[in-house]
Write a structure and sequence with these properties.
Number of helices: 6
Strand content: 25-35%
Largest sheet: 5 strands, antiparallel
Order of helices and strands: HEEHHHEEEEEEEEEEHHEEEE
Helix content: 25-40%
Length: 238
């Protein structure tokens, strides 16, 4: 009977301990983790304020919700180690599921595969890339320009120019509107505090190998509208 009582008490204690751990894990998850439709954000504070084994359990719960399947200790270790890597680093899990180190959080996101590298686009046409559409139009009267959200105007002397739209790459540079000197696209994005998840998808519009528009952000100083502009081109992102 003594042994049975001891086993019973131990079993009860384990159940109480398990319930306590689960309650704490749920509390930490609700305080430090944000869930959205296709992504999950883990705040830096989770790593800074919560110690193991609770941290490991919260990360395990987060991955289970993200991957919608059982996770291994290796998966938890990968997510735990990502916090100590530099901003922009990522780790992969199952297909189309990855975690990205941002400045103030870790982003777990499901991504769609895309084979886009670059495309040609002429004036009067539009092109759809992922969730965005880029349109280029000739302005009939450059003296009456109406500013619209997501649109820019550039000066272009060639009658029928052909542009190239592509993802930015290391070494790309341009002269941002209002500046006198070249600036690397990577530095411009850093100065604007563009999250790493968005940086990877940043597009540039080029003409004769010159960047004329960091799409959605800034045109090049060399293509700004002036009093000597012969032809105005309207660039729009929607």
């Amino acid at each position: 009977p003594g042994i049975h009582d001891a086993v019973f008490r131990t079993s009860q204690n384990l159940r109480v301990l398990s319930a306590y751990i689960n309650k704490q894990v749920d509390e930490y998850f609700n305080n430090y983790v944000e869930t959205e439709d296709n992504s999950i954000k883990i705040g830096n504070s989770l790593y800074e304020k919560v110690e193991s084994p609770f941290l490991d359990e919260v990360l395990k719960l987060t991955l289970e919700k993200f991957l919608q399947s059982d996770v291994s200790a290796k998966d938890v270790a990968k997510l735990k180690g990502l916090y100590y890597l530099q901003v922009g680093k990522d780790v992969k899990f199952k297909e189309n599921h990855s975690a990205l180190r941002e400045r103030n959080f870790i982003l777990l996101k499901r991504t769609k595969k895309t084979n886009f590298t670059e495309a040609k686009i002429k004036v009067g046409h539009s092109i759809k890339i992922a969730d965005h559409k880029i349109s280029i139009w000739k302005v009939k009267n450059s003296r009456f320009l109406v500013q619209e959200p997501g649109c820019e105007f550039i000066s272009m002397n060639e009658e029928k120019p052909t542009f190239t739209i592509r993802n930015w790459k290391d070494g790309d540079k341009f002269i941002p509107l209002g500046m006198k000197n070249f600036k690397k696209v990577s530095d411009f994005l850093t100065d604007r505090k563009i999250p790493s998840s968005q940086r990877k998808k940043q597009l540039v519009l080029t003409y004769r190998n010159q960047i004329i528009w960091l799409v959605g952000l800034r045109i090049d100083e060399r293509y700004k509208m002036t009093t000597s502009t012969k032809q105005a081109i309207k660039l729009c992102l929607s």
